[in-house]
Automatic annotation (TrEMBL):
Keyword entries, A-Z: ATP-binding, Nucleotide-binding
Keyword Iron assigned: no
Keyword Transmembrane: no
Domain of life, per lineage: Bacteria
Protein name from the UniProt record: Sugar ABC transporter ATP-binding protein
Organism, as annotated: Glycomyces buryatensis
Boundaries of every ABC transporter domain copy: 11-255
Gene3D superfamilies: P-loop containing nucleotide triphosphate hydrolases (3.40.50.300)
SMART domains reported for this sequence: AAA (SM00382)
Single GO MF descriptor: ATP binding
């Protein structure tokens, strides 16, 4: 391991194994995520990308192997365990509540209560404070498309909903933000906004794991690219060291790293 503490991985996986009956999801996978970097995870369907991410975020428990966060070994049993330790995940199906407004979605499950007995005994939600903090968080991330935090999420575009989910992850993901196909259902303009968000997270020093099929976007924003193939890590490359064609060749087994 690098003796330079600035380059110690924030998140590490060592020799992760996960099987589902006779199907091998992960076959001894390693992964390192460093401070303030965007690590893309790519691979064909069935390569183990989703299983790897689920193990790192507590949605699946690996059969073998170790997960380390800031040098401490973790034993995540459920997603809440990972969230408690500062790992936030934005899944493709966006767990937002359409009827609630932007601020309420940002604080979903973590609502701020009013001070004193109103909050502690009667559990009254401090809507005003949540809305102000939501505005501050969105402004800090440079999300200019969500000026009004009182708008119900069901009135937002796909890109704006994605921005709400990413902002929520950024607000509470103190260590790591994981984005699962964040631009899959978006148009060009909205995809561009999400890529800017990813850069904004990195600029704040929050490392990002980006799972994506979109090679041009991966090569645009990723610092390093983890390639999964047949349940193993086939290679870790950079946009400087390899081309998109190289990446696809490694992904499909047509070439070695």
């Amino acid at each position: 391991m690098n003796s330079d503490t600035a380059m110690e991985p924030v998140l590490e996986a060592h020799s992760l194994v996960k099987t589902f009956g006779r199907v091998v999801g992960l076959d001894g996978v390693d992964l390192e995520l460093y401070p303030g970097e965007v690590l893309a995870v790519i691979g064909d369907n069935g390569a183990g990308k989703s299983t790897l991410i689920k193990c790192l975020t507590g949605a699946e428990i690996p059969d073998e192997g170790e997960i380390w966060l800031d040098g401490v070994r973790m034993n995540f049993k459920r997603p809440q365990d990972a969230r408690t330790h500062g790992i936030e995940t934005v899944y493709q199906n966006l767990a937002v509540s359409p009827a609630l407004d932007v601020a309420a979605n940002l604080f979903l499950g973590r609502e701020l209560r009013k001070p004193g007995p109103l909050g502690s005994i009667l559990r009254v939600v401090d809507t005003k404070r949540m809305r102000q903090q939501a505005r501050d968080e969105l402004a800090e991330l440079g999300i200019s498309t969500l000026q009004d935090v009182t708008v119900p999420v069901e009135n937002l575009s796909g890109g704006q909903r994605q921005a709400v989910a990413v902002a929520r992850a950024a607000a509470f993901g103190s260590k790591v933000v994981v984005l699962d196909e964040p631009t899959a259902a978006l148009g060009v303009r909205e995809s561009r906004q999400v890529l800017e968000l990813i850069r904004s997270l990195r600029d704040r020093g929050i490392p990002v794991i980006l799972i994506s099929h979109n090679m041009p976007q991966v090569f645009e924003v990723a610092d390093r690219i983890h390639i999964q193939r047949l349940g193993k890590r086939a290679a870790t490359i950079t946009p400087q060291s390899h081309s998109m064609t190289d990446a696809v060749a490694i992904m499909t087994g047509a070439a070695q790293a």
